[in-house]
Hints:
Blueprint: E1 16-17, E2 23-24, H1 27-30, E3 34-43, E4 48-54, E5 66-72, E6 78-84, E7 94-100, H2 106-113, E8 120-127, E9 139-144, H3 148-160, E10 167-173, E11 189-193, H4 208-215, E12 224-230, H5 231-243, E13 251-256
Parallel strand pairs: 9-10, 9-12, 10-11, 12-13
Antiparallel strand pairs: 1-2, 3-4, 3-8, 4-7, 5-6, 5-8
Amino acid sequence: MTDTFTPPTAFTPPTRFAVPGRIAVSNRAAALWQTATLTEIRRETPRAATFRFAVPAWAGHLPGQHLMLRLTAGDGYTAQRHYSIASAPDDTGHIELTLDHVAGGEVSGWFHTVARPGDRVEVRGPLSGFFAWPGDRPALLVGAGSGVVPLMSMVRHHRSRALRTPLRLLVSARTPEDLIYAREYGPETTPVLTRRAPEGVLAGRLSETHLAPHLADPPADGWEAYVCGSNAFAEHASRLLVAAGQPVERIRIERFG
C-alpha cells in the first residue's frame, strides 16, 4: 500500500526545548497528517523489525509517546493503527517504529511482507502525554516483548542527552533471540528471559527478585515507574511494583492485547 496524500505545509511549528530533556510540541502540528517515506528496514528478532521513516516536517515528540499511522490502498481502502515511537526526539526529520509481525495482522503483515524503502504512509502525532518521560525524573522502566518500544525511546533519549537522571530498564522476553534491541542494551538494562536463558542464567517470569535491587535503594526523589506490555504482563508487573513499595500514583501503564 502507498498513499497519495499531500499534507498541509503552511504551518510547521518548531520543536521547543523548555528545559534540558523536555520537548514541547504544538497540538496543532500533532493534528496534521504528514507523509512519511520508508527509508530503512532493520531486522530485530525473527518476529520484529524496525522501520525508519523520513518525515521532514515532524515537530518532535516526547519519549514514550505514540502516533497514528494510516495506510491507503490503490482502491481507496484505508487502515489506521496506533504505534509507539521507538526513536529519540533528537533524530530530527526521522522517526522509527518497531513492529511485531502479528499473525493475521493487516497492517503489520503489510509492513513485514510487502513494504520496501521508498513506500509512503501517513502519520499523525505525537499523541498522548500520559506515558511520556521528558527526562526530568528518575525512571524505572519495565517492559515485555514489543512493550519495550516506547521504553527504548526513553533509553535513547537518556543517552543522546547524556542525562544524569537515574534510569533503569527491565525487559522481559521468552528467549535471547526474542529480545528486541538486544545489541543496544547497556548497564542500565536487566533482561528477564522467561523460557530459555544462557547457561548460568535462571529462566523465569519477572519477579520481586528482579525489582528488589532497584526498589530497596531508590533515588532520593523515588522512581517514576513505566510499565508496558500485554494486559497480563502489565497487571503482573504493576502488582509486583506495588508489593515492593512503589506508590500506585507513580506507576504509569501502557498495555495492549
